[in-house]
Design a protein that fits this description.
The chain is built from one helix and no strands. It has about 55 residues and is mainly alpha-helical. The relative contact order is 0.07.
Length: about 55
């Protein structure tokens, strides 16, 4: 016979995973910000230098 689902435990696991992902994202953004500050570049909102592609006009 299968166990009955424990919805509270499943929800807690999802919330933990969500919070961990959020913390990792904040840490990555902080590292990017620190790297830009160290390079002397002005801060930019939502700009990820790793994904910038040159645009031709």
């Amino acid at each position: 016979m299968a166990f009955k689902p424990n919805y509270n435990q499943q929800r807690a696991e999802r919330n933990r995973a969500k919070e961990q992902k959020k913390q990792e994202k904040l840490q990555r953004r902080q590292e990017e910000s620190d790297r830009r500050k160290a390079a002397g570049l002005p801060p930019q909102e939502g700009d990820d230098p790793a994904t910038d592609e040159p645009t031709e006009s």
